[in-house]
What we know:
Number of helices: 9
Order of helices and strands: EHEHEEHEHHEEEEHEHEHH
Number of strands: 11
Helix content: 25-40%
CATH class of the largest domain: Alpha Beta
Amino acid sequence: xxxxxxxxxxxxxxxxxxxxxxxxxxxxxxxxxxxxxxxxxxxxxxxxxxxxxxxxxxxxxxxxxxxxxxxxxxxxxxxxxxxxxxxxxxxxxxxxxxxxxxxxxxxxxxxxxxxxxxxxxxxxxxxxxxxxxxxxxxxxxxxxxxxxxxxxxxxxxxxxxxxxxxxxxxxxxxxxxxxxxxxxxxxxxxxxxxxxxxxxxxxxxxxxxxxxxxxxxxxxxxxxxxxxxxxxxxxxxxxxxxxxxxxxxxxxxxxxxxxxxxxxxxxxxxxxxxxxxxxxxxxxxxxxxx
Length: 290
């Protein structure tokens, strides 16, 4: 039987939210219960939201909570170090890897270059909204030949790369919490995989990394459930075995709304500053929602 491998993969955009700590805790407990490995990976491809010092803070928060991991990014003597056989564990250091797989998708006809401007995309979405349609990309660049696309790139035009979804195909997967889920591609968008700055989107990077790092179970918040069919389809076109999915319900406040800074303490740092014991916070998060 394959060894269970789970990961916690936060973005360094600020202090660790207690919802993130709960996700880390569930990954850690599930891995340990099954004598598996738990990995910390840093997903820092959205450079506009990157916060200096956030990686160090989240590692300190995990250490404070007693959540130990086997591979990934560690803090030693105030410096970030990476340990394990599947590195790098920081996505911004893996750009060449993503580019290789994006090129493979384009060559196979499963992805395409898109040159649409932000203004055009905004205009299309507004028109779709006024007609009561779901706002999404209209496929304007979908049938551009590779030759024409290459010429436009050579001429210095800005572009992104999009996933080329087939028409009217049911994407099926099983979630350990939600059961069997089926989404038709006609209700989905040709997702951007590679941004104009050369960085992959979450949707591309997460599939490549989870496959190459042999992740067997993906335990994450339910806000990622609508994106999962795109990830499942990417596993299919690459011919890879998809992992088992577990989407956890969102941690809510007493008004049954998502926890936010406007409504009080939401980060691990907030609770540490108020003198909460790590055992108390971990115990609460382990049992919330049961």
